[in-house]
Amino acid sequence: MEFPSELIEEAVREISKLPGIGKKTALRLALHLLKEKQATTEDLTEALLKLRKETQYCDTCHIISHTTDCTCRTINTDQSVICVVVDTPDMLAIRSTGQYKGTFHVLGGVISPIEGVGPEDLHIDSLIKRVQESAGEVQEVILALSATMEGDTTSFYISRKLEETGVKISTIARGIPIGGELEYADEVTLGRSIVTRTAYLSGE
Amino acid sequence: MEFPSELIEEAVREISKLPGIGKKTALRLALHLLKEKQATTEDLTEALLKLRKETQYCDTCHIISHTTDCTCRTINTDQSVICVVVDTPDMLAIRSTGQYKGTFHVLGGVISPIEGVGPEDLHIDSLIKRVQESAGEVQEVILALSATMEGDTTSFYISRKLEETGVKISTIARGIPIGGELEYADEVTLGRSIVTRTAYLSGE
């Protein structure tokens, strides 16, 4: 596509570097900013720059935080359990269920030989150290990774590493989603949901 | 959704003001920028600010241009015909077909009483003036607006205004898209394609 101005060409090139945004969407966004007040663009760019420059990560759990009081150190958080997640959105999703009050540990990715990501690129060593140094305060580690090949590999690797610490290791339940129809469930999930069946609680 | 940091909350709020981007996508984009090098964010924000601050519009045809040589004044452009479009993407789409070598005129919107857009908010007067002041050089005005109620209203209004100038007024052809199946065409389009049938050219 030939653009009427170098400015718009440059903006479209930069915007379309973002994941999931193609050239057409980038052009639409650029033209939208041109129609809005200058302050809209200024607020947006300032927020992005500030985010990139000032964001820090907690040394303990690797959650994003720009202050030194990370949620993993606050009193309301249950320090006896660590939920291991791949990245921030997973943590937010689990926290917003309201069913979990413990701490988190962000891995920053999954083991993927194809993409050249090994265990040393993830925050696994710091998880082991965290469990060891808690001197028994951490009683359970919940592995909350995706049920993909990479996720399962990573879960397996972490569980082997954690074995020597003697901490209880659990994983989030896999099964038929609530509201899901049995008929449309895939065989693997359905099979697993029978193997890992749980006691029936009335009112569930 | 509760965010782990005010910086990310602020960035998500600003990003999700863009059209078609919700909070989840905004969070994904913000986390992407955090993972990339700082230069990526700097290049993006610089391009956006530059676009918003330095973009100018041609006085004649209202196309975006940051220099004074707008395409409407270059020698290679056919000055005898003006194609009227709603906005820049429409112009780019027509230009990229390679079938049109004339000038453009960007209206900046369509007449829409519901949204409070009247003829005086669009670049209609400047179009009339442009045709009048060309002293016969402009021989044809092509109306290339969408076939919606607002587009048709705007086309009708412009055609009435242009009548007194004596310029030839045409509109882009409406009909069955090339590659389209008759069976699936809507009745209105099919009916119009019969009424406005054209001479058969072999090789078409």
Automatic annotation (TrEMBL), chains A, B:
Signal peptide: none
Recorded superkingdom: Bacteria
Keyword annotations: DNA damage, DNA recombination, DNA repair, Metal-binding, Zinc, Zinc-finger
Family matches, as Pfam families: RecR_C, RecR_HhH, Toprim_4
Keyword Zinc-finger found: yes
Toprim domain: residues covered: 80-177
Gene3D superfamilies per UniProt: 3.40.1360.10, 6.10.250.240, RecR Domain 1 (1.10.8.420)
Physiological role: May play a role in DNA repair. It seems to be involved in an RecBC-independent recombinational process of DNA repair. It may act with RecF and RecO.
Family: Belongs to the RecR family.
HAMAP family, per the entry: RecR
Name of the featured protein: Recombination protein RecR
Organism annotation: Reichenbachiella ulvae
